[in-house]
């Protein structure tokens, strides 16, 4: 007997009723993950102390640049930093001390309170891909993204059981003027989904629009007292904070809205070609960015971000799902926990042009690492293709299905009396079969994670049905989800108020396409 | 700026020379992995003690069956077990006590000493797929495996940089009579590769043939004093030890050859539909099997095996890359380490019919879990398709490439002065670029894992070259490897001796096809 017998099918446990149930589209959304398994701690205490010491050395001796931002320089000077030109040198210990007022856990409210998420501690909140100018699907190939694509991705995110968050720029709606598309994007998140979402960061005025639209949706007082957006502020690595991103951060911090403060690093290009060196720079940048957020408003909610990929030294291309990116992600998680900050990293990253095996290897490597590195907020958790240039319809539902694996992994092992199953082992005995026993009957429905997408059919059935690969199955699922989509209920007055705001703001500006 | 900029290519660091170097086939084989990262311990002390207590309860109260094996029953009776019919009930503590004489680390010798492997401690040894009656390739589709396929897979394994072990039944050569194919398979491993391999277990006489052929290859005395085979002994779960497998185990144990003693479990069918219950049964079975090996010969080298998959309760199909299989694999690793035994589990498992995204998600989930669960010997590390029914040519080289990721992950983080890279951070400063700096130039060649297969090309180049997916790239790599294959040197007298042995043994038996 060899392991090939694993290919044998075991009869029983099935039934047409359950198959029908499974093929129906469900609108359940799982609660955000609360891990019941440990994180993987790859750095020992000595390594952590070296990196923390070095990061402070970088802040003190090399410093960071705050570009075209005199007000920021003034705040830093007031806090005790040395400012020369745009260079800010931060005395050892000061940035860490300023970071202490940032909360360790953030509740982000959704318009449907059942969809509220908590970011921090042992939580993991999953949000879709962010930023691609292109989309790809199995029938239309690769093309520039439009507002219709954007709405479709918001709908797919709303219908995904395992996605807790509607995200932000799920793709760039390139058919809408650059200076107006944030309005349509926010309107889509607010009305087509009831999950939490992100605000615009491409200009301070667009961040302000995001806040004002939230005031229409949630009420002005609620927004001032609660976090209703988590927005993505990238640091221009190495060690540079530009005025556009900082301007958006300032708007959000002043309005008590959360920001992910995230070095944007292709290792070997924007950071040293070594893991410890990259972690040092990441920590220095986050310390400076988070400290600055607390100078703008003490207690402003922020997240320790790390977007890290390594570079292929042959082609110059960024690479994904690689061991070095994993080392950095694991290590940055440890550094974030020692700072007491929520942690953003990970994603279904890949460099592949197609949602093929390469895409899936790389994405699965990244997703597993993100779970085990203690990530609290995972952007790009589904739909990312081609190094982030493309939002893929099929990969969106493929990755989203795999997010169910993370939910079940995070549960850990049940060692209750029922979990121990000693009665079943006694009942079945040597040479017996567990399918019919009482314990199996009582537990099988919830015992194992079940895919909504992948193929487990007998070879002959699979062949008769067209020998479909994962992309073909995903394409059919995308069609079914979009066909079955129904808008979640929203107060008509609120919807009208949002639409009016968008129309008014659009009228107030000429179109801009760059 | 959004993360989409990851899609931008960075110039530099490349060059035609390095591209040429990369496309050449290399015959380096990496040394087996010695982990420098921690294992993930998902069970706490209380959970471990519950499972260990319950496993002893199972052995004592339920017992195990040794089928058609009076000599085994006699050994058990002599050791103090209660034997009734074929049922063996083992008093609490006895099996664990007997296991104590099994070594915690095994050196398996290869005919090329540079390929010797150590199994145990923090090591990880990678071996290819085992057992499939079918093969699949991109051009020929799915068909019954032949001896030519077998030889091809041995060649691919020999040429893989990241595979340390030639494996055993890399596919079933169905064109050779059942009672003779082990001779051809062993001859292929012994002559076409110089990596370590596995012996036959399908009959005790075939195990004896394996030992005798090794005596020709290594010398009789060497074989008696050293381990030169690691063979796969499956337990017929639940709790049943059949006479064929035990007969093979007895031959190997008496000849000081290693066996993997491995429960073969589809969770929900051959074990309870719960993780803790399955772990209890796995531990009980391994305790009984390893204890028996030590009754046959004290000190016989054995490995704690766990082949575990869960069942899809809709279709009855075994499933792979699932969270429950991961929980069991992590937990079984902890149990093996507490027993002080080397641990076999994991593999590039998948249920998919094609080497598509499903196959890659499932395989990557399994490979990551195997590394982090402390596996010492990983069978099925590449080439497994369709629940183990198919050996896939393309998936063999796809998975084998991903095994490089595991090697680099296992290295952990270098925090030496060079790793810290403070000179580079000081040199580059805010807004600079690392590609040209001295530290990057000195380190880039070995800093990052590099694929031999996956696509990182610019979109336009990739499109011009035919927009190939991973399977197409893998198919080309398979062709190139088989074309470039050269047999490793072997003493002509030894090769002739082996060929004579095979011819003589084949003549001595009529063909049997079942």
From TrEMBL, chains A, B:
Q: Name one Pfam family in it.
A: MTTB
E.C. numbers: 2.1.1.-
Which residue ranges traverse the bilayer?
A: none
Q: Which Gene3D superfamilies match?
A: Trimethylamine methyltransferase-like
Gene Ontology molecular function? methyltransferase activity
Gene Ontology biological-process annotations: methylation
Q: Does the keyword Iron apply?
A: no
UniProt KW Methyltransferase keyword = yes
- Its top-level enzyme class, in one word, is transferase
Q: Which UniProt keywords apply?
A: Methyltransferase, Transferase
Sorted alphabetically, which InterPro entries does this protein's record hold? Answer: MttB-like_sf (IPR038601), MTTB_MeTrfase (IPR010426)
Q: Which family does it belong to?
A: Belongs to the trimethylamine methyltransferase family.
The protein in question is named Methyltransferase
- This protein's species is Halodurantibacterium flavum
